[in-house]
Structure formats: C-alpha cells, structure tokens
C-alpha cells in the first residue's frame, strides 16, 4: 500500500560530543600539582586520554577500511565500477529523470504537477491519484492523463545510461516510480524493469475487470471528443482505469518479490530524480547491504542522502568517526554519494569518467530502438 508522502526529518549533528571534558580536568590537575593524590589523578587522566585516543584511531581506521569508496563523489563511484566490477547494479528512478523529456515532476515548486492543479478544483492535489476520489469523480484524472499523455516523448540521456548498464551486463533491475514507460521505450528488457507504480501499458475495467492494452487507451486519450473511457463489454458500463497505482492501492505483486530477490544481491545502487518521499518505494534505498555504495543524482538532497556528505570529499575527523561508531551524533555515511544537479549532466559526467561517453552518445544519437506508443 502506498502511503502519503512524509517529509524526511533532517537529523542534526550533535556538537556537544565535540566539546570534550578533558580540558577542564587537565587544568584542575595542573593548578593543584601538590595536592594529595595528584600523581594518581595524572596517571588516571593520561590513561583515559590514551584509551580515548586508541578508540578514536580504531574507529577512524575501521571507517576508512570499511569504506567501499575512495572518495565520496562521482570519481569514487567510477573507480568502484572500474575496480570492483559490480554486476548487480540496481537503479531507482522518479519523475526527475523524465523532466528533460518534457514531463513535469510532482513536487518541484512552480513547475511540479502538484502546484499546477488549481483548475482541477481539488481540495488536495494528491486527490487526483486517490482511489476513493476517482470512484466518485474520474474526470480530473482523465483530464490530466490526456494533458500529459506522452506523445512523441523521447528518453533522456539518463534513460540511455541505464540502457548502457544493461547492455554491459551490469544492470540487475530498474525500479521506477514513473508511469511514462520511457524505460521500455529506451529499449531495456521489460524483465529488467519494475514499474512500482504501474504504467499505461494496460488498463482495467473497474467493474468487470476486463483488460485493455496500450493501443486502446492511447486511442482514447488522444481523442479530444472523449474524456472518461468506459468498458466496451456488452452490459458493462464500468470506468476503465489505466493500471497505474493510486494512493491506497496495492503495489504490483512482483514488486515485493523483486525486493526480496534483488536487493540482497545489489552491489551498487544508483538513485536518480526522486524526492524519496513516497512509501514504500522510498525505503528501498535501505534494503541494500550496509556496505554497498549508494549514489543519488538529483537537484536536491533526498532521503538518507541529506546530511553532511555533499560535495564529495570525505572530511571525516576522528571525532566524527567516534560519533559514527558510538552513535553519539549523526551517522557519518561512508558509502553514500550525493551528486547535486540534473540527471543528464550527472550520467554524462559519470560516463566520461568510466570511458563510456562515446558509446553513450552513440546510443543517444541513434534514438530509441522501439516505439511502444504506436
Ligand atoms: P517528485 O516530484 O516528488 O520528485 C522529483 C525530484 O526530482 C525532485 O527532488 C526534483 O528536485 C528532482 N528533479 C527534477 N528534475 C530533475 C532533473 N532534470 N535532474 C535531477 N533531478 C531532478 O517525484 P517522485 O519522487 O517521482 O505517484 O514522486 C514519487 C511519486 O509521487 C510519483 O510516482 C507519483 C507521486 O505521487 C503516482 O503517480 C502514483
Ligand atoms: Zn467492464
């Protein structure tokens, strides 16, 4: 069941832990050198200090050793791909991967869909994807579906990049929240694509459950004289709804099977163009093993990629290492890379670092190998 988006709470770095208390006790001891027991105190203080130092070194070393990436940036990811040769890469995408194809995302203020539904007269913009609302009044949804129906849309370089991963035998699965089918249009095998929120590829009559294919719904959505599609079966007047997942609807059964089968094998996670607020999709990022590198390419930080890791270079001090080990503050990630910017720029930069840029450009120039919409 999809739950309403929840904003991710930005955890605050605890600074108290960085203050330390040994300075005070040092001073006290120095000011009273002759008091009884001061040599024991000195010994005790120095023992505590040396223990603290050892702990810091161990913690720091263990983080450095356990980090799968040399640097927490695209260079680190490129180096990881070249040297560790991951072959089970999982890609997770959202609406941001398709904005360059002319499809608006949902939550970007101003251009996002949810800021532009005033004419639909909805109490809450997300009602447009609510089953209860749809059963009562399917018109706003179809008005939007017609306005947005992807006509002549082209996959973006970010889509081609995932196709390239597949071509190189490195793609385990592509989990997408998008319903634009650009993953298939770019030529990725449909077995490799998990459309978590469904797609327009099929539609179902809400009354008799008769299935309709992409061509049927395309014809309907492209016909300006029609709005709500109705079932064509004799004696049925049910509304035909594209099989995209609305809030409160169950996700495809395959989705959960894929999570259980795929995520434990994942050796690199690449997340692109999503605010990571809609569950359960958003939580998938935590399904990969804790030592597996995760890359987010997005215009803004999202999910666990918020925090003190932007900009790439790791600036871990031993104090931060200690905090990470002993839970004294925010957990300093040693495997997350947040690359701020457009998905297309990010994948082109990564492809260049990998020496794949010519191949990628060639694919983009050739255009999509299939045309699903005709
Ligand atoms: P959102 O609109 O919530 O998030 C899109 C993210 O992509 C934002 O963080 C943008 O800053 C970023 N972005 C936009 N264009 C970009 C670009 N060219 N390059 C990089 N980043 C870019 O969309 P989703 O996370 O996909 O559900 O939303 C999840 C779900 O919420 C959708 O599947 C949809 C919606 O309710 C259904 O339709 C059922
Ligand atoms: Zn029917």
TrEMBL record:
Its cofactor is Zn(2+). GO terms for molecular function: histone deacetylase activity, NAD-dependent; metal ion binding; NAD+ binding. GO terms for cellular component: nucleus. Residues 1-42 are annotated as: Disordered. NAD(+) binds at residues 95-99, 105-107, 177-180, 274-275, 298-300, 343. Its EC number is 2.3.1.286. It catalyses: N(6)-tetradecanoyl-L-lysyl-[protein] + NAD(+) + H2O = 2''-O-tetradecanoyl-ADP-D-ribose + nicotinamide + L-lysyl-[protein]; N(6)-hexadecanoyl-L-lysyl-[protein] + NAD(+) + H2O = 2''-O-hexadecanoyl-ADP-D-ribose + nicotinamide + L-lysyl-[protein]. PROSITE patterns: SIRTUIN (PS50305). The keyword ATP-binding does not apply. The active site is at 197 (proton acceptor). Zn(2+) binds at residues 205, 208, 231, 236. PANTHER family: NAD-DEPENDENT PROTEIN DEACETYLASE SIRTUIN-2, NAD-DEPENDENT PROTEIN DEACYLASE SIRTUIN-5, MITOCHONDRIAL-RELATED. Belongs to the sirtuin family. Class I subfamily. This is protein acetyllysine N-acetyltransferase. It comes from Pristionchus mayeri.
